[in-house]
Amino acid sequence: MATATVQTLFEGIRRGDRASLARGITLVESTRADHRQQARELVAACVGVERPRSLRIGLTGTPGVGKSTFIETLGMMLIRKGHRVSVLAVDPSSARSGGSILGDKTRMQELSVAEGAYVRPSPSRGTLGGVARNTLDSIILAEASGYDVCLVETVGVGQSETMVADMVDMFVLLMQPGSGDELQGVKRGIMELADLVVVNKADGPLELAAKLTRTEVLNALHLMLPRRPSWTPKVVRASATTGHNLDRVWSTVLRFFDELRASGEWDKLRAEQQRKWMWREVSHLLLAALDRDPAVRACARSLEAGVLGGTVAPSAAAEQIVDRFLVPRR
Amino acid sequence: MATATVQTLFEGIRRGDRASLARGITLVESTRADHRQQARELVAACVGVERPRSLRIGLTGTPGVGKSTFIETLGMMLIRKGHRVSVLAVDPSSARSGGSILGDKTRMQELSVAEGAYVRPSPSRGTLGGVARNTLDSIILAEASGYDVCLVETVGVGQSETMVADMVDMFVLLMQPGSGDELQGVKRGIMELADLVVVNKADGPLELAAKLTRTEVLNALHLMLPRRPSWTPKVVRASATTGHNLDRVWSTVLRFFDELRASGEWDKLRAEQQRKWMWREVSHLLLAALDRDPAVRACARSLEAGVLGGTVAPSAAAEQIVDRFLVPRR
């Protein structure tokens, strides 16, 4: 792909062409050196596109909680309201299962073909780190393409949620009715991130259980300081199947953004995220460069063995590895 | 301090001399280049000392929860049982307040002068990162000095707890009686780390409230997957003032270590911690080296401004910073 093609791709993305967006995200996810350069150009161009700030929303929940149905129903509702909705997935299981690409496409049958929606299949790449790292670039592309609601979906097993929380404005946790003893399977640490907990499947025989779960979750959240100065996490019962309370879910989301906007926290949050993201990526690239140097890698491997065996202090090992990497370059 | 002095210091530490340990930890906390080299030698020597594995226990709780009294009472009890107890503090507030050194010393009046205990005052260094980074080295020194119980105390405001959780085997959270609505002030994320929650001040008029708090905390914990395969977090009511249930607190701690030992998880945990610690330190040192290069720092500052202003993508900025740092060295 030449620079001219990057320009064509960029123009396609800017005018909202889904095929261009899909190709752009594939480029952004690529690890090939020439692709990296092109991806950098493309993202730089997309950052420059002036649009109203989109709502970046992380969404998680363990398998079985009805996440796909929820996104499908909510997404269709938003499109009817005139929004343009993109759905990106960060799925650490895709490496194991060989990709849940087809799965996603078929699960969100309506949304994935709807005008005004772009559903990105789970990435099929091996390393979670890589995938999550590129997700912010993918969001930037989607935003340049006019998507004003960007959902980022994770599977709630705790590996990717903190990284996703660092790139979205709001974090939504989907749970199902059932007490803690029945084990929600929510990894510790994830509930902490939630700005909104949706107790899904709150219909029919589970309605009462959903009420109890809502109270339990509220109590759990009350024991802890709120994560944000201008927002106390809310818990809403809903049913993606019947559509019950999805309007309340969305009005809660909008209220969240109103509060964040009014308090100035949204601006601060975005700035801090961007800064953090940049420095995390610097760390990652430095470690990757270190790992590409065969001599340093050998040295690190031997020191790591000493550290694991308890004969070398981690701090001393680290100093030696870094010296080995940097000193010959001075 | 010459290498000969490091040897003297090491011998002092090994035979359990508290003044040597104090000087050693000061050395480890120093940022001076010659001190760093000596600290590395000292830590390397201490890592080689063969002793039974100590119990590394993190302890946190918001101010007012009675942490110092709790440590004092528990510590004195452990000394009577024949343990040697070291108490290290990671206190991010010390930079602000100009050091809580005197505070700590006077708060733990009995323990700080007790034979068999070493109470390290809060570090007076400016950056939390630096202090917490050195704490693992301080633990290694204390262990070489024969302390078989190493308590690491934090103030529970969320900045240092995750780092501390990465260097201890067990994490204890102190709370006080009172419902969530009365705001425990426990930062979200901290309860997640807890292997044991102690509801302190469970005496006199607060006894009933302590029972309710215990139930609330248990419910909150039940909603989440346990953090460790072989241990479900426990909640124990106790009173540091009357000494009530401190024996149960300690027997719970011992049960925790029995379970971890039996399942092999303790070995795995330590190995994983050491590895993680080493790589985190590598990252830190690389970023520090990058920051020491004036040209790179200027470039990073200008790109960071672009990132904060939304005109530069974080990923692109990161690539440019790293290129600027590494390329001239090739």
UniProtKB/TrEMBL annotation, chains A, B:
SUPFAM superfamilies: P-loop containing nucleoside triphosphate hydrolases. Gene3D superfamilies: 1.10.287.130, 1.20.5.170, P-loop containing nucleotide triphosphate hydrolases (3.40.50.300). One of its GO terms (molecular function) is GTP binding. Pfam families: MeaB. InterPro entries: GTPase_ArgK, P-loop_NTPase. Belongs to the SIMIBI class G3E GTPase family. ArgK/MeaB subfamily. This is Methylmalonyl Co-A mutase-associated GTPase MeaB. It comes from Coemansia biformis.
